[in-house]
Specification:
The chain has 13 helices and eleven strands. By secondary structure, the chain is α/β, with parallel strands linked by helices. The strands form two sheets. A nine-stranded mixed sheet has the order 3-2-4-7-1-8-11-10-9, sandwiched between helices. Strands 5-6 form a two-stranded antiparallel sheet. Helix 1 crosses helix 2, helix 3 (85-98) crosses helix 13 and helix 6 (160-174) crosses helix 10. The chain binds coenzyme A. Coenzyme A (COA) is lined by residues 83, 118, 122, 125, 141-142, 182, 197, 203-204, 206-209, 285, 333.
């Protein structure tokens, strides 16, 4: 496989937007092209990550995006893997460039859902799980993650206060991210007193419904050499795994096999262990998801991650900062954009552009993006050159 570099990345603010997913995708892509220091004409192909285009009556966003960039001939397809659409699109682009098929690719994730009421949005989201067996019997994502939280509590004695500590940390980080959806400092007490969404998860245990877009550009070493571009960030590992699309068929609901497999693949390719990571952006759609992610990635032993959060070991100045961006919980979760947005955070961190949330001497960062309750997972590892 050829060496591949992350050469540009940018995102819009996350939150409620009056713009369409199409307009948001254009803004993020143009900004990423600018900071990559290339011309749109250098882009040979693209993937667009978008899960709910039909909620805006607009599928097939790729050709519209490519036309707006002045490159209508460049092929572009939508990749949909629920909340893992962004990570999956990035993986597919990586495979294309690493194999030598293309030299430069654009990956853009975008979503717009804030025009939907809560019930409609929740129902659309549930289509990304096992809708016939789970969603249509009322088990939407808050309910399914609540079941995972209960399983983890039963198995390891995890408490609601420990889950709340994840939300407090991510809201603290989000306070330093001017593009975050929920820029609000909260306490453990605020979380515990917030309205119950699906017991034991409360409003402040959940990520919000967000609009937003994020874009990344990757290029081959040959392209970089030919154009005299500075190699700032290399992609060291790419892991992708499927998992059972349903929660009710699993023997263990306190762990995601797809995370275990995808992280092993990515770490193996990179030739490093989790101990070498300087920070990670993980998929914290609910507070329990961050706990499970850290354990499945191998950052902490099973049953130990929640204690580590309470002890401040995952804070920006801790031993392994988790979600310095604020994560899905505070930065927001525009579904198609999320996995690419995690890579934007890595780009900013590894180029020293994260302002007050900058991780000290960040050299190696990991992204972890999950679809539904683990039916899809993508893990990527990046290193500053
Ligand atoms: C938790 C949830 C049900 C709340 O939705 P909602 O009832 O429509 O919330 P609203 O948009 O009406 O917001 C009500 C208030 O709560 C706040 N809020 C909404 N979601 C929030 C969240 N997740 N965390 C903190 N505050 C939140 C809003 O800012 C608003 O505050 P304000 O009145 O001061 O402006 C919804 O955000 C949700 O389902 N999140 C999970 C999404 C999901 O499943 N993603 C996929 C994961 S796999």
């Amino acid at each position: 496989m050829n060496k591949v570099f992350l050469i540009g990345a940018a995102g819009t603010a996350y939150g409620k937007s009056n713009l369409t997913a199409r307009d948001l995708s254009m803004l993020a892509s143009k900004h990423a092209i600018e900071n990559a220091g290339i011309k749109p004409q250098d882009i040979q192909a693209s993937f667009v990550a978008n899960a709910f285009g039909m909620a805006e009556k607009q599928g097939h966003l790729g050709p519209l995006l490519m036309s707006s960039l002045g490159i209508p001939h460049a092929p572009s397809s939508t990749i949909e893997a629920a909340c893992c659409s962004g990570g999956s699109a990035f993986r597919e682009a990586y495979v294309n460039v690493a194999s030598g098929f293309y030299d430069v690719m654009l990956i853009t994730g975008t979503e717009k859902v804030s025009h939907l009421d809560t019930l409609t949005a929740t129902t659309y989201f549930a289509y990304g799980g096992d809708y016939l067996f789970e969603g249509c019997s009322g088990a939407s994502f808050p309910g399914l993650y609540a079941a995972m939280a209960r399983a983890h509590m039963h198995e390891y004695g995890t408490t609601e206060e420990e889950l709340a500590a994840v939300a407090v940390k991510n809201h603290n980080n989000g306070m330093f991210n001017e593009k975050a959806h929920l820029q609000k400092k909260i306490t453990v007490d605020d979380v515990l007193k917030s309205p119950v969404v699906a017991d034991p998860l409360k409003l402040f245990d959940a990520c919000p419904f967000s609009d937003g877009a994020a874009a990344a550009i990757i290029a081959s070493e040959e392209f970089m050499n030919r154009n005299g571009l500075e190699k700032k960030i290399s992609i060291k590992g790419s892991g992708r795994s499927g998992g059972s699309g349903s929660l009710h068929t699993r023997e263990d609901m306190s762990s995601l096999e797809s995370t275990i497999r995808a992280s092993r693949e990515a770490l193996g390719q990179a030739g490093i262990s989790v101990k070498d990571l300087d920070f990670a952006e993980v998929h914290d759609c609910f507070t329990i998801a961050e706990i499970i992610a850290m354990e499945d990635l191998g950052i902490f032993e099973k049953g130990q991650a929640s204690k580590a959060v309470v002890e401040g070991r995952t804070a920006i100045n801790g031993e392994i900062p988790i979600n310095p961006s604020g994560g899905l919980k505070s930065k927001g979760h525009p579904v198609g954009a999320t996995g690419v947005g995690q890579i934007v955070e890595v780009f900013d961190q590894l180029t020293g552009n994260s302002g007050k949330r900058q991780v000290n001497d960040a050299r190696i960062g990991l992204t972890h993006n999950v679809g539904a309750t683990g039916g899809s997972c993508a893990v990527h590892i990046f290193e500053r050159e």
